[in-house]
Amino acid sequence: MSGKTATLNLPDGKAVELPVIVGSEQEPSVDIRSLRDATGYVTLDSGYMNTGAVQSAITYLDGEKGILRYRGYPIEELAEHSTFVETSYLLINGKLPSRTELDAFSKQLTYHSLIHEDMRHFFEGYPPTSHPMAVLSSMVTSMSAYYPDCLDRSAPMDLHITRLLSKVRTIAGFSYKKSIGQPVMYPRNALSFCANFLHMMFAVPAEPYEPDPVLVKALNQLLILHADHEQNCSTSTVRMVGSSGANVYAAVAAGILALWGPLHGGANQAVIEMLEEIQKTGGDGHAFINDVKNKKNNSRLMGFGHRVYKSYDPRAKILKKMTDEVLAHLGIKDPLLDIAKALEEVALHDDYFIEKKLYPNVDFYSGILYRAMGIPTDMFTVMFAIGRLPGWIAHWKEMVTDPKSKIARPRQIYTGETTRSYLPIEQR
Ligand code: ACO
Fold first, then answer.
1. CATH 1.10.230.10 spans which residues of the chain?
2. Which CATH superfamily is domain 267-372 in?
3. Which residue of 39, 234, 253, 310 sits 20 to 30 Å from the alpha carbon of 356, by its own alpha carbon?
4. Would residue 286 show up in a list of annotated catalytic residues for this protein?
């Protein structure tokens, strides 16, 4: 509470004093929780364009200035110096770990990387054409059947958190191997978190495989950049589902499903499909940009625009540099990268995009990077889910450990028919 209030004057002559709450970065807000009881009014904010649904100490972002910080640490510093495991610890526990804490956390992740052998047979039930997000979400829901103590909200949560973080990576690796008809590769305890994922994706039993350290570093950075983004569609879904008391696996599975959509985590796949389409038609992107501006077929420049970032997305800046470095290291010349850079150049100088404050977001370059690493297009959103997992878990934990948290239950403005009498079918 700031001790200040805001006065809202209503058309019926009523005036109401509402408390002003100021966040730690001096963001002011008006607390409208008492509004309905005091006046009968509710607020309308479709798409939650300007609604603070929670008070959270996890991630700060300033869309105007292009700032993103996890627990106070700038994303640029974490991407440069941290690992995904350390950043996950930070998000979930609120502080950077000591050496002993990090070693213990890493060890836990290593020892919980296997999935129950019975779950391995689930993969056989899915058709080969299954989207890996469908497989991932249902496998995560199934985990609640294998670890039923998650239904007891008073039971310790650390083990479930470790299991989720570690096993989602294994499920992703196994589902990829299954989709290409290869035997699954079990995790190797000697490998780090990200190196182990590359091993499960790309090793084959017949040959030795050592993950490329440049790709391991790139994967760490990619996952760190995706690790949290405060109240986005999937994270709010996790909080909403978790607010009913549903277990952590159910809440995270719901987040995975929300992430799947092309306007959210599915954008990285949509960007590659868009670039491939432009490449197929032999264009340089100019005609496509015109179609987007004319809203032809409701097309959008995928990987551009963000609900919150209105100057630039700091994650996109880091990713663009990393994409160049990784492609140079691998000696790959990807024509899609040339098309992407040309599109970006055109869009950044075009009035349509400038006026609407549309800039590349994190997904504009991530797909090209994943492609270079050998990850297939339909796995891109799964990669996003692996990265976002610590953020979802941190928000779920923040909510369930807050004694004041309530079940999420928005209001609505009803616009349907007023009361009318039921008519027998012959009279309609
Ligand atoms: N290409 C062309 N026009 C766009 C784009 C785009 N990528 N994004 C927004 N616009 C236009 C809209 O057509 C609209 O124009 P209008 O005012 O003439 O109707 C205006 O900009 C505002 O767009 P909204 O959809 O209202 O903005 P909103 O904040 O709701 O949407 C979103 C944000 C969903 C990210 C949007 O910019 C978009 O669809 N981008 C493409 C998909 C994408 O890259 N998603 C990934 C987001 S990042 C993430 O989830 C990790």
1. 267-372
2. Cytochrome P450-Terp, domain 2 (1.10.230.10)
3. 234
4. no
